[in-house]
Design brief:
Elements lengths: L1 H20 L40 H31 L2 H26 L15 H29 L7 H22 L31 H29 L6 H16 L1 H11 L9 H9 L4 E11 L5 E9 L5 H16 L3 E8 L17
Parallel strand pairs: 2-3
Antiparallel strand pairs: 1-2
Family: Belongs to the cation diffusion facilitator (CDF) transporter (TC 2.A.4) family. SLC30A subfamily.
Main location: membrane
GO molecular function: antiporter activity; metal ion binding; zinc ion transmembrane transporter activity
Length: 383
C-alpha cells in the first residue's frame, strides 16, 4: 500500500508538471502572464529616411485645383462664343469664321478631356499602377493636340476647295461682327488660362535644377500640363482670330477680295499647327521616358560622385511622369570604409534639394575594380 501511495503521488506531481508546461491558451481558467500584442496598424510617421515629403492628402493639390478652376471657366467661355461663331459663320457664309468655331470646338473637347484627366490623376497608386495615374494628364494633352490637328486638316482641305472654286458669297458685315467677337473671346480665354508669375510651392516637385557653381535659382513656371496645352490652343486661335478679323475688314470694304476668306483659313491654320509643336515635343519626351527638361545627365552624375565615399555610379536613369513630377534611380559604388546609410542619406538629400526630384531610388554597393570594364556599368552615349 505504501508503494501504491508513493506511485500515486508521483503521478500527481507528473500531471502538475505537464499542466504547467502547456501554453496559456490551452488552460481554461488561467490568465496569460503578459497581454497579447495588438495588431499593428500603419501610421504616417512625421519623417522617414526614404520619404522626403509627407504623405500627400487625398484629392487634388492646390495647383491642380487652380488648374481645374481655370479649365472650367475657359471651357464655359469657349462654349458660349463657339455657339455664337457657328451662328455668325453660317449667316456670313464665311469658312474662316467656321474654321475658328471648329477650333473652339476642338478646344472645348480638349479642355473637357483635360478635366477628366485631372480627376483621374487623383486616384491613389495601386499594386498595378504603382506610380498612380499622374501620366493621364500627359495623355490628355496628347489627345488635345491630335484633335486639333485632325480638325485643322479638314478645314485646310475645305479652304483649298474654295480657292479652286469661287462659287461662294461672303456677308462682310456679319463676318466683321463675328470676327470682332471672336477676338474678344480668345483674349478672355487667354487671360483666364494665363499662368504667369512664380509657381506654387510643392516641396520637391516642380523645381528646376540649379548648376552647382551658381547655387539655387528661381524655378521656371512650367505650370499644369493640361492648362498649358489649352493655353497654347487659345494662343493659336487668337492668332487666327486676328487673321480672320483682318480678312473680314478687307472683305467688308472690298467685297471683290472674297478669296481672303479661304486664304486666311489656310495660313493661320498652319500657324495653329505650329503652335502645338512645343506641347507635342514635351508630351513625346515624357512618353518616351526621356530626361526631364532642364535636368542634365552630367550635373546629376557629378552631384552623386561628389558625395563623400562614392567612387563610381552606374545605372543612372532620369525620367518624368509629368512636366513637374521627376524621378531618378542609380547604383552608387562606395568605398569599403564608407557608411552606406550616410552615403544614401547625403546623396538623396542633394538630389532632392538641387534638382527637385519627386522620387529618388538609390542602391548602394561596394566598389569593385572590375566595374571599370563592365559594359553594363558604362555611361550611355550622347543622343
Amino acid at each position: 500500500m505504501r508503494v501504491a501511495a508513493g506511485a500515486r503521488g508521483e503521478n500527481i506531481e507528473h500531471l502538475k508538471l505537464r499542466l504547467e508546461a502547456r501554453p496559456p491558451t490551452l488552460l481554461l481558467f488561467t490568465e496569460p502572464s503578459e497581454p497579447l500584442p495588438e495588431e499593428s496598424k500603419p501610421v504616417e510617421m512625421p519623417f522617414h529616411h526614404c520619404h522626403r515629403d509627407p504623405l500627400p492628402p487625398p484629392g487634388l493639390t492646390p495647383e491642380r485645383l487652380h488648374a481645374r478652376r481655370q479649365l472650367y471657366a475657359a471651357c464655359a467661355v469657349c462654349f458660349v462664343f463657339m455657339a455664337g461663331e457657328v451662328v455668325g459663320g453660317y449667316l456670313a457664309h464665311s469658312l474662316a469664321i467656321m474654321t475658328d468655331a471648329a477650333h473652339l470646338l476642338a478646344d472645348v473637347g480638349s479642355m473637357m478631356g483635360s478635366l477628366f484627366s485631372l480627376w483621374l490623376s487623383t486616384r491613389p497608386a495601386t499594386r498595378t499602377m504603382t506610380f498612380g495615374w499622374h501620366r493621364s494628364e500627359t495623355l490628355g494633352a496628347l489627345a488635345s493636340v491630335v484633335s486639333l490637328w485632325m480638325v485643322t486638316g479638314i478645314l485646310l482641305y475645305l479652304a483649298f476647295v474654295r480657292l479652286l472654286h469661287s462659287d461662294y458669297h461672303i456677308e462682310g458685315g456679319a463676318m466683321l461682327l463675328t470676327a470682332s467677337i471672336a477676338v474678344c473671346a480668345n483674349l478672355l480665354m487667354a487671360f483666364v488660362l494665363h499662368q504667369a508669375g512664380p509657381p506654387h510651392s510643392h516641396g520637391s516637385r516642380g523645381a528646376e535644377y540649379a548648376p552647382l557653381e551658381e547655387g539655387p535659382e528661381e524655378p521656371l513656371p512650367l505650370g499644369n500640363t493640361s492648362v498649358r496645352a489649352a493655353f497654347v490652343h487659345v494662343l493659336g486661335d487668337l492668332l487666327q482670330s486676328f487673321g480672320v478679323l483682318a480678312a473680314s475688314i478687307l472683305i467688308y470694304f472690298k467685297p471683290q477680295y472674297k478669296a481672303a476668306d479661304p486664304i486666311s483659313t489656310f495660313l493661320f491654320s498652319i500657324c495653329a499647327l505650329g503652335s502645338t509643336a512645343p506641347t507635342l515635343r514635351d508630351v513625346l519626351r515624357i512618353l518616351m521616358e526621356g530626361t526631364p527638361r532642364n535636368v542634365g545627365f552630367e550635373p546629376v552624375r557629378d552631384t552623386l560622385l561628389s558625395v563623400p565615399g562614392v567612387r563610381a555610379t552606374h545605372e543612372l536613369h532620369l525620367w518624368a511622369l509629368t512636366l513637374t513630377y521627376h524621378v531618378a534611380s542609380a547604383h552608387l559604388a562606395i568605398d569599403s570604409t564608407a557608411d552606406p546609410e550616410a552615403v544614401l542619406a547625403e546623396a538623396s538629400s542633394r538630389l532632392y534639394s538641387r534638382f527637385g526630384f519627386s522620387s529618388c531610388t538609390l542602391q548602394v554597393e561596394q566598389y569593385q575594380p572590375e566595374m571599370a570594364q563592365c559594359l553594363r556599368c558604362q555611361e550611355p552615349p550622347q543622343a
